[in-house]
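The protein record reproduced below.
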Amino acid sequence: AAFYEANYKKFEATINAKLQEWGGAMLPFKGQHVVAYHDSWPYFAHRFGVNIDIFLEPKPGIPPSPSHLTEVIAQMKAQKVKAIIVEPFHDRRIAEKVASATGAKVVEFSQFPGGLPGTDSYVKLIDTLISRLAAALK
């Protein structure tokens, strides 16, 4: 039990330090709008102060229609959205088309460690997500 408690304490200290670092990295982008292919990121958005409230999918699991994408593009232009989050299993071509119409950047995200290169731990995953999104929002 002492072994697990020690590991927990170490992990907790790491996460607490990283939360400060990640929060600082995202602070300049607080309140900015970000588009996502799918509504997968409400906790991330809440934690780091970005608004992920426009989605390429009109409803979860429903592929976007041309008319829906036209609406999304208009919203993105009006709100000056700079980033579109897409997960590896979604159709990146749709996100790329919307990005080219709006000047936004496509940012590949994954929900689990190992889902992107160099993200074999939770901390490395969040490091990667934060650095990718911050780079796109600059």
